[in-house]
Design a protein that fits this description.
The protein is mainly alpha-helical and 460 residues long. The chain has three domains: 91 residues, Fumarase C, Chain B, domain 1; 233 residues, Fumarase C, Chain A, domain 2 (Up-down Bundle), CATH 1.20.200; 93 residues, Fumarase/aspartase (C-terminal domain) (Ribonucleotide Reductase Protein R1, domain 1, Orthogonal Bundle). The chain contains 18 helices and six strands.
Length: 460
């Protein structure tokens, strides 16, 4: 059977052009969505008396037969199929005859591919959100377990202040919370149905686009037919969401790589998420964390690729738009697998507190707390900052910490200060005192965990 669009052509496509033009190699994964869209479309056509009910039933029965054959591997696609839309329609016509020729009434591949991708992406967004929910639940469990375990907080990769591990976990919880919220917003914005926009200008036939949207589970039809077939904003928005979330995973994966190093030795990653060396028998490499860190680059690339495709395309449809799917599919697959791998790895990773505690004597972690203590006794913060800075310098020269300073040394820096005025500068006291809203104190971390649980429960 010749091409379904070849009526005005005298020559068939060159074989190399067929290969270059075809999208069946990748868009065949949309076959379920394509058939769902077609079923809704012919139901609407029958309801509007554009085709008969008998024709509608024949078409739907034929489509379901084709769906089963594809699912069972009985249909093998090739370059002559061109794309999933033509592949299904041509087989339908072969199977049921003239009734199948009415399937494409009042639609174009331009709006057909758009409804397919939107339905596909809606389903994938729900699955990705489920995986993010799982990751968030793991984070909450870890935050609860380690809510009062002290570790080193860094800025500029230098020791900064003491924090709790639970506090650190809840920082990442907030990142993935925003990822979920962005996906929800994207879903709501893209939940409109382009089917019936046809090539770019709608149709003279008395279709009911609201009915088609209802049958396919969309909130409404798209408002403008020309925009409907040329819009890829929703894919770009999804790719942006994927890129941001993958960046969050990559940041944490980077910390896993540091924490797993001999210099840190903060964590014990389960063997099932590490690999060994082909030459060095002692090695236990954090390869999953490293690979997660690397995967973000391909998702960034997927977003940039589509942005580049779209930047020079005039209204309405252009063949360039065929390049919207491979990167999107890749980003979906990469993001989904990355979330699951990281969540499972995180769940099976434990912190080595004995190793972490060895770092507490480095970097004057309680310096800010001493400065704030001086503020409480009436010393302006800038003066307090300078005093503590001078105390650090003396400690560095003596190779000691604040507790080893003498009254004379402290008093020589500022006559208002004595060793007794330093108060309790243990790391436990410092952490417990940081009860400001959103702070690292265990009681405040517990509050954050409780709020996090309520939010997550409200979505499940």
């Amino acid at each position: 059977m010749g091409s379904l669009w070849g009526g005005r052509f005298e020559k068939d496509m060159d074989d190399t052009v067929k290969l270059f033009n075809a999208s069946i190699a990748f868009d065949q994964r949309l076959y379920n969505e394509d058939i769902d869209g077609s079923v809704a479309h012919v139901k609407m056509l029958a309801e509007q008396n554009i085709i008969s009910l008998d024709e509608s039933e024949k078409i739907i029965d034929g489509l379901e037969v084709i769906r089963n054959k594809i699912t069972n591997g009985e249909i093998v696609f090739n370059v002559d199929d061109e794309d999933i839309h033509m592949a299904i329609e041509s087989r339908l016509i072969e199977q049921i005859g003239d009734a199948g020729k009415k399937l494409h009434t009042a639609r174009s591949r331009n709006d057909q591919c758009q409804v397919d991708v939107r339905m596909y992406l809606k389903n994938e967004i729900m699955e990705i959100k489920e995986r993010l929910f799982y990751l968030e639940s793991v984070i909450l469990e870890k935050a609860e377990k380690y809510h009062n375990f002290i570790t080193v907080g860094f800025t500029h990769m230098q020791h900064a202040q003491p924090i709790t591990l639970g506090f650190m976990f809840m920082a990442y919880f907030q990142m993935f919370k925003r990822d979920i919220e962005r996906l929800t917003d994207t879903y709501d914005r893209m939940n409109v149905c382009p089917l019936g926009a046809c090539a770019l200008a709608g149709t003279t036939l008395p279709i009911n686009r609201h009915r088609t949207a209802e049958l396919l589970g969309f909130s409404a039809p798209t408002e403008n037919a020309m925009d409907s077939v040329s819009d890829r904003d929703y894919s770009l928005e999804f790719l942006s969401n994927a890129s941001i979330s993958m960046m969050h995973l990559s940041r944490w994966a980077e910390e896993f790589v540091w924490w797993n190093s001999s210099e840190f030795s903060y964590i014990a990653i389960d063997d099932s998420y590490c690999t060994g060396s082909s030459i060095m028998p002692q090695k236990k490499n954090p390869d999953m964390a490293e690979l997660l860190r690397g995967k973000v680059g391909r998702v960034y690339g997927d977003m940039i690729q589509l942005l580049t495709v779209m930047k020079g395309t005039p209204l309405a449809y252009n063949k360039d738009f065929q390049e919207d799917k491979e990167g999107l599919f890749d980003a979906v697959d990469t993001w989904k697998s990355s979330i699951l791998i990281f969540a499972n790895m995180l769940e099976k990773t434990e912190f080595k507190m004995d190793q972490i505690e060895k770092q507490f004597t480095k970097g004057f972690l309680n310096a800010t707390d001493i400065a704030e203590h001086f503020v409480k006794i009436g010393i302006p913060f800038r003066e307090a900052h300078s005093i503590v800075g001078q105390m650090v310098k003396v400690c560095e020269n003596k190779n000691c910490d604040f507790n080893n300073l003498t009254d004379d040394e402290i008093n020589s820096i500022d006559a208002r200060i004595t060793k007794k005025l330093l108060g309790d500068i243990s790391l436990e006291a410092c952490v417990n005192a940081r009860v400001s809203f959103g702070g690292t104190a265990p009681v405040e971390v517990k509050r954050q965990i409780e709020i996090g649980r309520k939010w997550l429960d409200s979505l499940l």
